[in-house]
Amino acid sequence: MTQNIFISYSRREVGFVDKLVDHLEEETFNVWLDYRSLVPGKPWEEQINDGIKNSNIILLVVSKASVASDNVEFEWRQVLKEEKKRIILLVFEAVDLPPELEKYEWVDFRGNYKNALKELDRQLKMPEQEKHSVPEAGFKIPSIVWLAFFLSLIVSIISIGAVWTLFIPFFLIRLPLGILKRTFTYMLVQASLFMLPFALFLTVSFSTDPDVSDIVDFLTYASIPFVIGLIFVLRSEGMQRWGKPEAVAPPSANNKKMAYPDFKAASFFIDHAPQDQKIAEHTRKVFKEIGHIEEIDPASADAVFTLVSRFKGDSIVDSQKQMVYPVIIQSNDKISKPLSRVQWLDLRTGVRNLNVVARLLPEPARLLRSVGIRPMGNQTVLPSVIMYLTYFIAFLAVVCIGSWLPYILQYADEFIYDTGFTVVIGQLAASLILFGGLSYLMVKNIVDRKGFFASLLGLILGMLILGGIILWQIEIDNMVFDLLNTNVEYRGYSAYYPRVIYMAGSLVMLVYLWFKRRDLMFWFPEKK
Q1: Which residues contact 395 (CB under 8 A, 6 or more apart)?
Q2: Dihedral sign computed on CA atoms, order 479, 482, 484, 487
Q3: Average pLDDT over residues 110-123
Q4: What's the sign of the alpha-carbon dihedral 401, 404, 405, 408?
Q5: Treating both helix axes as pointing N-terminal to C-terminal, what angle do 186-206 and 384-402 enclose, rounded to 10 degrees?
Q6: Distance between CA 325 and CA 271 in Å, rounded?
Q7: Which backbone phi and psi does 325 adopt, to 5 degrees?
Q8: pLDDT tier at 2 (50, 70, 90 boundaries)?
Q9: Which of 458, 457, 464, 429 is nearest to 442 (CA)?
Q10: pTM of the predicted model, to two decimals?
Q11: How far apart are CA 73 and CA 461, in angstroms?
């Protein structure tokens, strides 16, 4: 007889739970997990109680967050009312257990994951509860986490060679501790890792000390295998189970081939903010082409699709009384609690799979299981076109500002004491501040989808202004060396690297943006 399992946990451990459920379902267990099992349109508490009542075994994921969670406590106290329920504690972190839970079986998942799975499978196959001592205390983490820690420690030391970039060592020096505490931000760390070898190469080019150049040159080549290794380790299944939601790679929807149900027309309503009008119109078009009917009144619709973005975090209808699908198109840290309890349809990486959604619309459970993903809180996830565009702008700013450091350091006395440099210093300071401030504002506007630069016109104008500042700095570069009146070994670096990266990078980005133009235009908000 197939056993029914109810899983109680904290959202901080959603990566661990998601992988665990995949394993249990492969072992033919029926698993009740909130975001996979809660059906929109019905009261959550009633569904949770039914999930507990219909389960033979309760798996309680023990962690600091779950022990402190009122929702988790509510669930296990509901279980204790039913004396025949079997409880197995899954120890993710060692904590002091409430006295009521100390007598139950447990499996230690802090060490070897595969061995822990075997032990859990063994216990699940036992006909009745075994006697166990209280779970062991002490600090213990999986070996893959130690590997990530040591790799990040090496990378953090190497990143000191790129200290002039400020943001690269800012994220990488803190990474080893962040890995142990599960608190690092995956997307920012990934960007820093991608840029580190390039920043070190520029450090060699800019250096005025041959000994320093030799050291950093070695670090540049040495960094590459460690950076690649760390990226792969951070994306490994072990680290995806380990990290908190913000510390893991964005999940992807299930793309397995599926058999579609016989078509049955359903009525729908698109609930969205005015800024998300373009995506709403595209969704309407796809649904109508399939044969579904749009309702003017959301209360009359079979299903309400709420487009979640920074402009909207709640639905206009009660998701416990009506079928609501949260469709997240942009990360939002203010999503309402009802919408955060169910599986999302995730369009943050691009507007895709709408045909699949439309074909599965008559069967909500299959729809969520097939194309839904686990809720990931306020983790920043961007379409690839936006991510690479912001990486390019940020890296261009780093190069443009950093390329002046060797001159400033080598000729500090002239810059400070020679009155002939007064005008040059003023222009240089103004150009660097303007370039850095404009780059920051462009990246912020684009990522937030808010502000002048969160538009095609704003992006084009911003890039032209950046190019104009680089031309201005070429003139400043000529003024500096005319005043120095000497043959300087590093002459032209502050003009050469920014110009080459700007021209070559802009050309590559232009081609890339053309192929990804639909994702780009969907991302830019509609003006009110």
Answers
A1: 195, 198, 501, 505
A2: positive
A3: 90
A4: negative
A5: 30
A6: 10
A7: -110, 115
A8: confident
A9: 458
A10: 0.80
A11: 54
Say what the pLDDT of residue 444 is.
95
Residues 6 or more apart whose CB falls under 8 angstroms from that of 496 comprise none
Concatenate the DSSP letters of all residues of 99-168 into one string: GGGTTSEEEE-SS-HHHHHHHHHHHHHSSSPPP-PPPP-S----HHHHHHHHHHHHHHHHGGGGGGGSHH
Tell me the two tokens of residue 16. 């661990």
- Alpha-carbon span 434 to 344, nearest angstrom: 40
- Confirm if 330 and 447 have CB atoms less than 8 A apart: no
CA-based R_g, the chain, Å: 28
Identify any residues that bridge with 346 across adjacent strands, giving them in sequence order. 328
Q: Considering the chain, what percentage of its residues have pLDDT values greater than 70?
A: 85
Which residue has 């045909």 as its token pair?
355
Tell me the three state secondary structure of residue 528: coil
What distance separates the 2 farthest-apart alpha carbons in the chain?
A: 90
Residue from 303, 283, 285 nearest 363 by CA: 303
How is residue 113 written in tokens? 């994951």
Side-chain-side CA neighbours of residue 148 (13 Å): 31
Say how far apart CA 423 and CA 430 lie, in whole Å.
Answer: 11
What residue type is assigned to position 371 of the chain?
V
Q: How far apart are CA 522 and CA 449, in angstroms?
A: 11
Q: What is the pLDDT of residues 248-257, one digit of tens each?
A: 877 665 555 5
Contact call for residues 48 and 34 (beta carbons, < 8 A): yes
In this structure, the chain runs to a length of 528
CA 377 to chain centre: 10
Cβ 444 vs Cβ 458: under 8 Å? no
Cα distance between residue 35 and residue 245, in whole Å: 15
The answer to whether 250 and 381 have CB atoms below 8 angstroms apart is yes
Q: Sheet of 372-373: strands edge to edge?
A: 293-294, 267-271, 303-308, 324-328, 344-346, 372-373
